[in-house]
Amino acid sequence: MHLDYELFCLWLYESWVEEKSDIIQHISGDFKQLIDHWYADAEKLQEIVISICDFHCEEMVDNQKKPALPRFMFPPYNLIPLEIHVINKLRQSHSLSKLIVDHPITNTNIAIVSEFSIVEDDFLEYIQINIF
């Protein structure tokens, strides 16, 4: 099982707290593409972000074809693409353009998050220090 999503989430956190590690070398696929083109204009990132939204939807469904349980099986994580909101929040902190994503998972009332904050987490920091 690839851990690209989980590693990408750690990369987002590291970027938020302005820490650097070698975690980026373990990320691949669409998440790596987004990192590699992070400073590009939002319009140029649309295809990558749509693909990440597709990934989110695929990870909401449990079926026998999957080698592991889906990542987003339970509410609210299955219904709210938090990774897209965090990406936009981080881009905003870097004075980059907001991603406007036209995808079924982002076009629901429940997926609209008007305001949230990212908080530091001791457990996440422990994992980051001791595993990566």
Structure description:
The chain has 132 residues and is mainly α. 45% of the residues lie in helices and 0% in strands. The longest helix has 17 residues, at 42-58. The radius of gyration is 15 Å and the shape is globular. The mean pLDDT is 85.
Q: Topology of this structure?
A:
Elements: H1 4-16, H2 29-36, H3 42-58, H4 82-93, H5 122-131
Helix pairs in contact: 1-4, 2-3
Q: Which features does this protein show?
A:
mainly alpha, 5 helices
What best-fitting shape do the alpha-carbon axes yield? globular
Number of helical elements: 5
Mean pLDDT: 85
Please indicate the percent range of residues in DSSP E strands (runs of 2 or more).
under 5%
Ends apart, CA distance between termini: 18 Å
Structural classification: mainly alpha
What is the ordering of alpha helices and beta strands? HHHHH
Low-confidence blocks of residues: none
Can you tell me the number of structural domains? 1
Strand runs, count: 0
How large is the radius of gyration?
A: 15 Å
Largest sheet: none
* Helix content percent band: 40-55%
